[in-house]
Amino acid sequence: MAQGAGVYPPLEERPIKNTICLFDVDETLTPSRRAASPAMLQTLSSLRHKCAIGSVGGSDFIKQQEQLGTPAIPVTSLFDFCFAENGLTAYRLGQLLASTSFISWLGEDKYKQIVNFCLRYISELDIPIKRGTFIEFRNGMINVSPIGRNASLEERIEFTAYDKQHQIREKFVEELRSRFSRFGLTFSIGGQISFDVFPTGWDKTYCLRHIKAEKDFSGVDYTTIHFFGDKTHKGGNDYEIYIDDRTVGHAVENPEDTIRQLKDLFGV
Questions:
Q1: 221 is catalytic
Q2: What is the Cα–Cα distance from 251 to 265, expressed in whole angstroms?
Q3: At residue 212, what are phi and psi to the nearest 5 degrees?
Q4: How far apart are CA 233 and CA 19, in angstroms?
Q5: Most buried of the four, 63, 86, 208, 221, by CB within 10 Å?
Q6: Active site residue 24
Q7: Cα–Cα distance between 141 and 177 in angstroms, integer?
Q8: 20: which strand partners?
Q9: What's the CA gap between 75 and 81, in Å, rounded?
Q10: Is 247 within 8 Å of 241 (Cβ atoms)?
């Protein structure tokens, strides 16, 4: 993956002025929970010579590093901006920006109500298999998985097909929205096996505040913000940023489609 790293012009000297491309991770830059291909990293590197680029995922920063970087190459060296947990954890040119905490916003009592309900719901859920790590606590959200995040790749694929047929996650989310409507939370389905729970407004549009703040850092005013994602349907975790008035949304089917669209748009 080393071919993804390199030396790039300063943000204010990129040939395509005032433009940044933001990318979802799973099924946009990489197969779900797997590493980016050399072809993808080379395409991103070529694009970065033309305009600014950033990754924006719902997972924590460690997972972005696992999928996009290597033990020798930090993911923060491959993108100008790295946004984990929708931008609650943010890096600009390798430097960590200020972060915000989900638990401090929500409060322990409300958090326990949601967690207790989710665990009860999952315990009564009749699905073919269950593994472990049904709730993952993150800085800016919680991630809930009916099958458990410890599921193998093969088990994840099987659950995805089962979920499409039986709407396991969709029904779970509908129940949570009904019971906890007063909490000001958003429940967003993403990836293969889980959904995210976070304060309304803390979806992927949260990262846009960091993009707009760049004008104060380097003087660059990003007036054109392209976003590429696969879960762009309503209820998907790319939907809000995809339809946002501040972005130009591009729906992709998989990483290969992302490469095709970038070649068509930017000639990389």
A1: no
A2: 13
A3: -65, -30
A4: 24
A5: 86
A6: yes
A7: 15
A8: 52, 225
A9: 10
A10: yes
The model's pLDDT over 52-87, given as tens digits with 9 standing for 90+, comes to 999 999 888 999 999 999 889 999 999 999 999 999
Tokens 């322990």 correspond to what residue? 108
The predicted pLDDT at position 41 comes to: 96
Residue 195's identity, in one-letter code, is F
Q: Which of 24, 80, 163, 203 is catalytic?
A: 24
Instruction: Evaluate if pTM is beyond 0.85.
Output: no
Phi/psi for 256 (5° steps) reads: -65, -35
Nearest of 53, 49, 50, 44 to residue 21 by alpha carbon: 53
DSSP string, 67-85: HH--SSS-GGGT-SEEEEG
Torsion of CA 69, 75, 79, 80, to 10 degrees: -170
Q: Which tokens belong to 200?
A: 């309304």
Asked if residues 259 and 45 have their Cβ atoms less than 8 Å apart, the reply is no
Cβ neighbour number for residue 72 with a 10 Å cutoff:
8
The encoded tokens of residue 169 equal: 């996650």
Total length of the chain: 268
Higher pLDDT, 33 or 171: 171
Angle at the Cα of 75 from the Cα atoms of 72 and 78, rounded to 5 degrees = 100
What number of CA atoms fall less than 13 Å from residue 182's CA on the CB side? 3
> How confident is the model at residue 268, as a pLDDT?
95
Catalytic residue selected from 26, 60, 203, 230: 26
Asked whether 89 and 61 are in contact (CB, 8 A), the reply is: yes
Largest CA distance in the chain: 57
